[in-house]
Amino acid sequence: MTSTGVTDEAEDSGPGGYAAARLRLLTEGARSGPPRRRALAELTDGWLAGLFGAATEEHTGISLVAVGGYGRGELSPRSDLDLLLLHDGRDDKAVAALADRLWYPVWDLGIDLDHSVRTPQQARKTAAQDLKVHLGLLDARHLAGDLGLTASLRTAVLADWRNQAPKRLPELRDLCAERAERQGELQFLLEPDLKEARGGLRDATVLRAVAASWLADAPREGLAEARRRLLDVRDALHLATGRATDRLALQEQDQVAAELGLLDADALLRQVYEAARVISYAGDVTWREVGRVLRSRSVRPRLRAMMNGRNGGKPVAERSPLAEGVVEQDGEAVLARTARPERDPVLPLRAAAAAAQAGLPLSRHAVRRLATTARPLPTPWPAEAREQLVTLLGSGRPTVQVWEALEAEGLVTRLLPDWERVRCRPQRNAVHLWTVDRHLIETAVRAAGFTRRVHRPDLLLIAALLHDIGKGWPGDHSVAGETIARDVAARIGFDGADTAVLATLVRHHLLLVETATRRDLDDPATVRAVAQAVGTEHTLELLHALTEADALATGPAAWSSWRGSLVADLVKRVSGVLAGEPQPEAETAAPTAEQERLAVEAFRTGGPVLALRAQTEPPADSAPAPSSPSFPSPLSSPSSPSSADGPEPLGVELLIAVPDQAGVLPAVAGVLAMHRLTVRTAELRSVPLPDGVEGSVLLLDWRVAAQYGSLPQAARLRADLVRALDGTLDIAARLAERDAAHPRRRGVEPPPPRVTVAPAASRLATVIEVRAQDAPGLLFRLGRALEAAGVRVRSAHVSTLGANAVDAFYVTRGEGTPLPGDEAASVARGLEESLRT
Fold first, then answer.
1. What confidence score (pLDDT) does residue 1 get?
2. Rounded to the nearest 10 degrees, what angle do helices 457-466 and 477-491 cross at?
3. Average of pLDDT values for 13-24?
4. Contacts of 369 (CB under 8 A, 6+ apart)
5. 772, 775, 774, 662: which is closest to 725 by C-alpha?
């Protein structure tokens, strides 16, 4: 049935006929995308026109008008209807009665309605007071009644918009910036709002409004297609959820992808990100042009006339040289009049580097010209091209907008073909703030701040750009990235030695942080393994800077002063090995005097001793003396920010010394879980007592924070720990009761836990690594499973990244020897099964 036929049926059959025709239209598979949106708008137009005609015989002085999205004819399956009943000021009662006969049938069908009743003068006055109303009226479309009345309003509203543009566009720009701050950027969000996020449908509508002002126009290339793609996704979202929503939630992405015929949710997000990137870039270009025009209009007429008179009546545009073939004009980097991109293959990189160094955007017209006329670079690149790329990457924050301009015209993938696989690629990890490609640029931006602390800044910056380039390939991205980095390094002109260093940096870019947070740094085997992988002190220096830049560019959960201190400690130890310094053979460092006092006190009292401190510096070599039974008041809110003048807080460190016995790890972990304390990091080791004192004490070093509220009293913690150790407190039952009373909301199903045995990680212990979804009581469950397996936990290293827990346990048999291979594998399987149940 054609859309006209559907419309006729709706008109003939009243609301019931419209509802049936609408349902058929939304469920027939042959029509989707723009044709379905147009057909739905036409169907609704016909129905509303029929309602209007049945409700009044008046054909002059009153009309029904569609505004906003409905005015544009963009009706998604669950879109609301934006309607204006326009009249010439006639009797209010008659108009109100007509409105009721129009609005109630819409409400009766369960369709959301945004409605208003106004005269043309009232509509214009409201638009002058409310920018959003003015934007909606720019898309006004006549549905029924007096066509002349609607046309006159459209003409007046558009004239008002153009006349008021110098005042209203800055207001609109501020609204867009505020919305972007509140909603985030569509091109990076895992659960984006397709309409309100920056680069979404709202911004696409704003660009139409700016164009209607005649003050500036948005780039047209790809904009209509990007808008259509987002509308298609919203249509599929409405059909998949049955709701009027713009939020693309994680649990609905697979269904939406299937509705659109896409492979999976990642393919869906990549399409959304690509569309958002086009709209965001168009917005950046458009608002720069608006600013330029408004600044030029603010110049005093006499001064402008004087400037024009010197140039034969033409405006004078000041041009300042930036680099060979590149000048600054009107706040942008543009090509010089003498530039010849067709003869200068390095010009794209030179222009980009000059713009970033000057902190200027690269003109869209310049980028388009470079994209269409510049010669490709030879392989390997000339030295100047490589230097300009390094200069661009080392320019700091301005690099981002220049890189986005190159991306918008396809110049990045032309220079680095491997970039295509990571472009707009989502990262389904809450720790990551960015897509893969933007994360690489953000890492280069962070690395630019570390170039003064390394001997080869160029290698650091290129490694930052390439460290995750393997994420576009199957398998371990570090392994794949090493191969790609070798190819790219050779292509852009690095020699064999430098290429080998870059390959090592990419291959091992996670080595330092993973080792520092998941391995025992007092174990010489740990340090020797890192030294062997890194090879040289210069490479270690570069890897240290890359590690920090990578983590800072990932997100706040990926880096902290605590992690930084652990990495720095590891680097110091590895540097000593590489320098040939003698290394201790003992696997456990001797306890400090303070740790000995804690151990002796625990041994003397026969029970646990607690001590804690707020850390604002990396942990020193000493531990605090035993604490009083209550927490000091300054520690009641460990998560509160530090003062502006003080150092960064690292959290609350909780030290527990317990006479060596079975069940310590699950007991302590369970008590902390009972008191709703989140364990950020944890270490456990056995501390021998001083000479003359038999036995040993377990020392647990934890960093904790309250999930909410204040920390519990130390006396309560110690009392519960004593009961847990003597068996009078059933922690498992208490945690189960709490979970039953307050069940956690079901969200996205996390990936299953994975437990592995790390090969050759230690000479005197077996290292079992656990990766699982972080949850209250997780460490308690792991400790209990290890106890049940009959192994001894020599040390534990706990770290949490967002919702992911990565814990490493150094375990031995009862006599203190590592587990044989088959026994270790059996313990790992048991742990994994305990986490799956």
1. 38
2. 130
3. 80
4. 335, 341
5. 662
Which of 413, 407, 425 has its CA nearest to residue 468?
A: 425
CB 436 within 8 A of CB 427: yes
Centroid of chain to Cα 646:
29
SS3 636: coil
- To the nearest whole number, what is the mean pLDDT of the chain? 86
Residue 36: partners with Cβ closer than 8 Å, 6 or more residues away: 25, 26, 235
Give the list of residues 6+ apart from residue 786 with CB closer than 8 angstroms, or none: 665, 666, 793, 809, 811, 827, 831
Kindly give the interhelix angle for 731-741 and 778-788, rounded to the nearest 10 degrees.
140
CB 214 within 8 A of CB 269: no
How many whole angstroms separate alpha carbon 57 and alpha carbon 60?
9
> How does residue 693 score in pLDDT terms, banded at 50, 70 and 90?
low
Distance CA 363, CA 22 (A): 47
Residue with the larger pLDDT of the pair 524 and 382: 382
- For residue 208, what are the CA distances in angstroms to 175, 222, 278, 368? 16, 14, 14, 22
Residue 379, pLDDT score = 94
* Averaged pLDDT, 17-43: 88
Which helix (H) or strand (E) element contains residue 65? strand 62-66
Structure tokens at 539: 């490479």
pLDDT 10s digits, 497-512: 999 999 999 999 999 9
Place of tokens 């790390």: 758
pLDDT given at position 815: 79
Using the structure block, give the residue that is written with the tokens 């790219």.
488
Q: Which two tokens stand for residue 315?
A: 């405006």
- CB-based contacts of 181-189 (< 8 A; 24+ apart in sequence): 185/276, 185/280, 186/272, 186/273, 186/276, 186/279, 186/280, 187/272, 187/273, 187/276, 187/277, 187/280, 187/424, 187/435, 187/438, 188/273, 188/433, 188/434, 188/435, 188/438
Return the residue matching tokens 């690095």: 494
Give the up-direction half-sphere exposure of residue 763: CA atoms within 13 A in the CB hemisphere: 13
* Separation CA 325–CA 334 (nearest Å): 9
Q: Is the pTM of this model over 0.85?
A: no
Cα 540 to Cα 576: distance, rounded to the nearest angstrom: 11
Contacts of 171 by beta carbon, 8 Å cutoff, 6+ apart: 131
The whole-number average pLDDT for the span 610-622 is 55
Which strands, in side-by-side order, build the sheet including 319-323? Answer: 319-323, 326-329, 332-335
